[in-house]
Design brief:
212 residues; mainly alpha; Serine Threonine Protein Phosphatase 5, Tetratricopeptide repeat; 11 helices
């Protein structure tokens, strides 16, 4: 019995080291393709970079790089496909949901973008960029009150979010609430003196107020 027990322990140790060696080799292969892909990227050879990332055995790092590159070269449908694959592997992958939202937004699939931004907020309620992006979508759809709600939520979380003040100013301006808009533009500029868009918006709002 003792001999059999010792043999089983030895067999378990051998299997462990074989698995470990296999994992190390697998990781080395992934790293090798990742490095080659990064080199191709640095040389703007994006198609070659994608080919290297595709050899990465569907690792998260490789899938992320592929999605980013597909978006960069304008193949948004492929990017969506890759990002969905990441979410199938990890349904709570915040970055993949966010990148998918951005991709949908960029190609005008706004309802899908809204769903993905809301998923990001479910996973990370502090995502002020998602709140601001949702505000912008609703603003562009003419749902200004809803846009204001999201801008205000973003500011409540991060009072130093200059872009949200500028966007809130635009929302107020569109509702003819000029003095409130001016106040928001000034807040944006107090946080970022080089915020040229907020400065331009402020000038236009002040000129409009003077004409009244």
């Amino acid at each position: 019995m003792k001999r059999i027990k010792h043999l089983l322990i030895l067999l378990a140790i051998v299997i462990f080291f074989l698995l470990a060696a296999g994992f190390i080799q697998w990781q080395m292969n992934i790293n090798r393709h990742l490095i080659k892909g990064l080199i191709y990227e640095s040389e703007f050879q994006f198609e070659e970079a994608i080919k290297e990332y595709e050899k990465g055995d569907n690792s998260m790092a490789m899938l992320n790089k592929m999605a980013t590159l597909y978006n960069r070269i304008g193949e948004h449908d492929r990017a969506v496909e890759i990002l969905k694959k990441i979410i199938e592997i990890d349904k709570d992958h915040k970055e993949a949901h966010f990148d998918l939202a951005v991709t949908y937004n960029s190609i005008g699939q706004l309802e899908e973008a809204i769903l993905e931004y809301e998923m990001v907020l479910k996973l990370n309620p502090q995502s002020v960029v998602s709140l601001g992006s949702l505000g912008n979508i609703y603003y562009d759809q003419g749902k200004v009150d809803k846009a204001i709600e999201y801008y205000q939520r973003a500011i409540a979380i991060n009072p130093n979010f200059a872009a949200a003040y500028n966007d809130l100013g635009n929302a107020y301006h569109s509702q003819d609430r000029i003095e409130e808009a001016i106040a928001e533009y000034k807040k944006a500029l107090s946080l970022d003196v080089d915020f040229s868009l907020a400065r331009q918006n402020l000038r236009l709002a002040e000129e409009e107020l003077q004409k009244r």
